[in-house]
Write a structure and sequence with these properties.
homodimer; 327 residues; alpha+beta; 60s Ribosomal Protein L30, Chain: A; Phosphoribosyl-aminoimidazole Synthetase, Chain A, domain 2; 2 domains; globular; thiamine biosynthesis (chains A, B)
């Protein structure tokens, strides 16, 4: 009991980034002051040992990093600035040392410090087996600036903020070999994409700060699934041109069915997929260039009823969230 | 996969209580508008199957009720009005039917509707075994009205809002017999206290709305532990008079060591413990009476360094969070 209290004290932040924080960890709940010019954005995600990670697929610090990163990614997809997070952790009765947990929290803290986020609360409980880590993240976005999935219109350009399929490719190798045994330099970028995803906060903020009408979603599941969510929410269809999807030479030389598996259905890349009018696309591209961020036109919105189509070799395929059929 | 999406749709609220909610479930994150006259209060708590509940100790609806209630109790202890909640659930691969989960969510919804709270987000993942349910709850309190543990001063009255030890007594019987087999009417209030805790929101609000200087804490752990938190945070000592602690005749006839176990160390009663100046105590008592709420003077604050003392039969005992020693 006393050891637990000491440990909680050891992970309690000693300094604050956000001046709006009034009460952090240490009372029944956290309190922060509000700002009427902004709206609060909130997301929660859970990672489970044996389902989302194992000690073989992820270094300890990366488990913490990723648990927070996937939530920041949700905030980024709404155009928000991340501000606060809470961590609830269920710790197995054996197999996890205090030093292991410290590493997990250190991984979160490094990412949180980068975005000046404060850890403002949490819970620590025990569980028979399987470590479970749930992060709640809060951010703010200027009123009326939110970037919803339902904002897409016919003839819009469909864009993504970076390469896809990297995390799934990396995971495929991690499931065969512990990360401690993978040192092939060609694989490392993909291993890193799985373990240390980078939430696209800056891209989300640029999109929120423009007055362009943008639909936006983060790619936590595969491209097919995320495009389908935009298509459904906006009541349009999405047409993706296979050759326009950014791919590394390493991915390009894999068999086509593997490329599809990683890119269309793999997920966990945490890039953003969005739409913007054809007229505004060149301006947006320029804006991203000025900010040293990448953005790629991978297709267009057509009138339709929630279909996602893939154009490749003069053939059009209709994708579902988990597979496809030929037209 | 599609079944999961259907299920999530089935638990997604179709109407909203709070007009400040802008985006609920269905996008990357939820969004609500802020109000500068108030501050946001946020808490998170996790309940784990086999640790906090089993199907033998709790009816399904009560699991949901309690997962939300313990969070509302944290908000109540800060004087806040509850507004929103998010639910992240890890579902074992076997042993839990969709109907079971629906019952859990129904238990949460009934309590949420009572307090006009909106379910605004969540996550659904799988786990090998042990259902894990994490609730994040948000509320608001008027600026400067927050009721911190650090507000206690020497000579203050120490009060509690209701009887203690009921949940622990109930749990003791639930661990011997499944709740389906307990029908002794004398035990039912204690079983109910464990399964269906009532967060003291109204009491918290009355305390926040007065201008009295109040320290406040909810009793999730035992009385000894919660009093110690106030003593530590306020840098004072707490003196509790055993005979002043409200006890039912049923508890009074138990051996003294059982009474102590339930009341001092049992916890999960989710009553509030607080302090207020001697001068203002009669006014507070009157205010609670007018609102048909109970409140009991159980002791006083003395100058000191974080000790919790229990006065009984002309003897003073120093309590620790988990036990005691004689002076």
């Amino acid at each position: 009991m006393n050891k637990e209290i000491e440990w909680i004290r050891s992970i309690t932040p000693t300094k604050r980034h956000q001046s709006s924080l009034k009460v952090g960890i240490g009372d029944d709940a956290a309190i922060y002051s509000d700002d009427e010019t902004k709206e609060t954005v909130i997301a929660v995600d859970t990672m489970v040992e044996g389902v989302h990670f194992t000690k073989d697929t992820m270094p300890l610090k990366a488990i913490g990093h990723k648990a927070l990163a996937v939530n920041i990614s949700d905030l980024a997809a709404m155009g928000a600035v991340p501000l606060y997070y809470l961590v609830s952790i269920a710790i197995p009765k054996s197999g996890w040392l205090t030093e292991d947990l410290n590493e997990i929290y250190a991984g979160m803290k490094t990412l949180a410090d980068h975005w000046e986020m404060d850890l403002i609360g949490g819970d620590t409980v025990s569980i028979d087996r399987n470590l479970v880590i749930t992060v709640t993240a809060l951010g703010k976005v200027e009123q009326g600036k939110r970037l919803l999935r339902s904002n897409a219109s016919p003839e819009d350009v469909v864009f993504v903020t970076g390469p896809l399929g990297h995390s799934a490719l990396g995971l495929e190798h991690l499931l065969k070999n512990s990360h401690k045994n993978i040192d092939d330099p060609e694989l490392l970028p993909y291993i890193k994409a799985h373990q240390w995803p980078v939430p696209q906060v800056k891209a989300g903020r640029i999109l929120a700060e423009t007055d362009f009408k943008v639909a936006l979603n983060d790619i936590s599941d595969g491209l097919a699934s995320e495009a389908k969510e935009i298509a459904d929410a906006s009541n349009v269809s999405v047409e993706i041109v296979w050759d326009n999807i950014p791919k590394t030479p390493f991915i390009k030389k894999a068999p086509i069915h593997k490329q599809e598996e990683w890119i269309l259905y793999g997920g966990e890349d945490f890039q953003l997929i969005g739409t913007i009018s054809k007229v505004e696309w060149p301006k947006l591209k320029q804006l991203f260039k000025e900010n040293a961020l990448s953005i790629h036109n991978i297709g267009s919105i057509t009138s339709g009823k929630g279909e996602v189509k893939l154009v490749r070799d003069n053939e059009t395929i209709v994708l579902t969230k988990t597979g496809y059929h030929h037209l």
